[in-house]
Design brief:
This protein has 108 residues and is mainly alpha-helical. It is built from 1 helix and no strands.
């Protein structure tokens, strides 16, 4: 006021409109950000649950797989032993025993 600068009411009106426009955009971004934030929290929570479940699966599966592998190896040794017994029986002229698997029976 002491500098003797004259303010132009038209320019002030234009600046006010521009500021109002920016304020509206910022308010819109704030409301959009809140929605985005909540959505991202939900997605991150779901993805974290998936990761935790997958980690648990890996922890649970490894020992079970090792156990099944050992059982398969043991069964292979048993089958080899039975084959040797069958060969010996054949050489000695003994009558073979019939061995049935579970799939050969009608299970109901």
């Amino acid at each position: 006021v002491k500098r003797k600068v004259r303010l132009d009411p038209v320019q002030l009106e234009s600046m006010e409109k521009e500021l109002h426009s920016y304020t509206q955009k910022v308010n819109h971004m704030n409301s959009t950000f809140d929605i985005l934030k909540e959505s991202l929290k939900k997605v991150m929570k779901e993805e974290l649950e998936i990761i935790v479940n997958e980690e648990q699966f890996l922890e649970d599966e490894e020992p079970m797989l090792e156990d099944v592998t050992l059982k398969c190896e043991e069964l292979e040794r048993i089958v080899e032993t039975l084959k040797k017994v069958a060969t010996m029986q054949k050489e000695q002229g003994a009558n073979p025993l019939a061995i049935y698997t579970a799939s050969e029976y009608d299970i109901m």
